[in-house]
């Protein structure tokens, strides 16, 4: 995981910027997906860790991709579950890319735990998944 003193990686949604929306410092890139990037960040006023999910700059003009992202943000914001990170904020970066800020949950990567056999059994993990998703099954929400 590359540490970022400023968000200047080639895929960065905010070239040359280290603070998003004037209040979220980008600290480290945690993950990259087809649609976006996830950073560990910190609310600069509250000194609280956050996770920041932001749409890739090249997709920020794709209306369908932006609509999917905003639908995901709205759906997740309605969830109340110990198994789902809460959405704390959303908006658009200076370059127009939509973002959402989520509570940062400390822990270990479930995929790595399952792969190395040190985590819970797959059966036990699957039992816990339906609880937060059942309430939103009929609301066109998609969970990964």
What structural keywords apply?
single chain, 144 residues, alpha+beta, Phosphorylase Kinase, domain 1, 6-stranded antiparallel sheet, 4 helices, disordered N terminus, disordered C terminus
Give your account of this protein's structure.
This protein has 144 residues and is α+β, with helices and mostly antiparallel strands. It is built from four helices and six strands; from the N terminus they run ββββαββααα. The chain has helices spanning 63-78, 110-116, 122-128, 130-134; strands spanning 19-20, 24-32, 36-43, 48-55, 87-92, 98-103. Strand 5 (87-92) and strand 6 form a beta hairpin.
What is the strand tally? 6
CATH architecture of the domain at 19-106: 2-Layer Sandwich
CATH topology of the domain at 19-106, what is it called? Answer: Phosphorylase Kinase, domain 1
Helix content: 10-25%
Order of helices and strands: EEEEHEEHHH
The residue ranges in which pLDDT falls below 50 over 5 or more consecutive positions are 1-10, 138-144
Number of helices: 4
Overall outline: globular
Q: In the CATH hierarchy, what is the superfamily of the domain at 19-106?
A: Phosphorylase Kinase, domain 1
